[in-house]
Write a structure and sequence with these properties.
The structure is a single chain. Strands 3-2-1-4-5 form a five-stranded parallel sheet, sandwiched between helices. Strand 4, helix 5 and strand 5 form a beta-alpha-beta unit. Helix content is 44%, strand content 11%. It contains six helices and five strands, in the order E-H-E-H-E-H-H-E-H-E-H. Helix 1 runs parallel beside helix 2, helix 1 packs across helix 6 and helix 4 packs parallel to helix 5. It is of the alpha/beta class. It is globular. It has a single domain, classed as HUPs (Rossmann fold, 3-Layer(aba) Sandwich). The relative contact order is 0.21.
């Protein structure tokens, strides 16, 4: 019997290639430490995303892609609901004082941990034994730090964190190809207003 896995998901383009690997439609070698065999649940938890309209656009695209993926591969992957407004303020309070940090710096590490912590809380609530994240697909993210945080939380919660580097085996390139194939919306910034210099930082909540 397959064990359950919560896959924390940042966006549909990253999810596309990660699901290909986790469902064994793409090689897992170099990406994961062992062959995946899971019943997968998606957790779209990203209170870092600005604005609410952008957040909804990404969330709805994840829902649309899961529906396409399930039909194409005859699966039954489901998505957990989330809370945005309430969690958004908590995230802002954690990261605001580090808004001038460079990308891949302390602010980003706090953001990774904020989102992964809630994923572990969800897994504990529903007695799910495994967690992974799509965050390691992006070359703009610090994969080593993400896996360090996941391992630390794994030890605290006694829930297995699946170490990954989804960008290996041309993972990021393949995600772009999948985005074209399924006509997925690809955003032009990570979601955080601190990373998007075009946003007026005096009007963000």
């Amino acid at each position: 019997m397959k064990e359950n896995l919560i896959l924390h998901t940042c966006c549909a383009p990253c999810l596309s290639q990660c699901l290909m690997v986790l469902t064994r439609n793409e090689p897992y070698e170099k990406i994961l430490e062992e062959m995946p065999d899971f019943e997968i649940f998606i957790f779209f938890y990203n209170p870092n995303i600005f604005s609410y309209e952008e957040y909804l656009k990404r969330k709805n695209e994840v829902i649309r892609f899961i529906d396409i993926f399930n039909k194409e591969f005859k699966l039954n992957i489901t998505i957990f609901s989330d809370r945005y407004m309430e969690e958004r303020k908590k995230w802002y309070n954690v990261t605001e004082k580090y808004k001038n940090e460079p990308e891949k710096g302390l602010r980003c590490s706090l953001c990774y941990e904020f989102r992964l912590l809630e994923t572990f809380n969800l897994a504990e609530k529903y007695k799910i034994k495994n967690i992974a994240t799509t965050l390691t697909l992006s070359p703009l993210k610090n994969t080593k730090k993400i896996n360090e945080i996941g391992t630390k939380l794994s030890n605290i919660f006694n829930i297995k964190y699946i170490k990954s580097d989804f960008k290996k085996n041309d993972g990021f390139k393949k995600s772009i190809e999948l985005s074209r194939k399924y006509n997925l919306y690809r955003q032009d910034f990570c979601g955080c207003e601190w990373s998007n210099k075009k946003i007026n930082h005096f009007d963000i909540l």
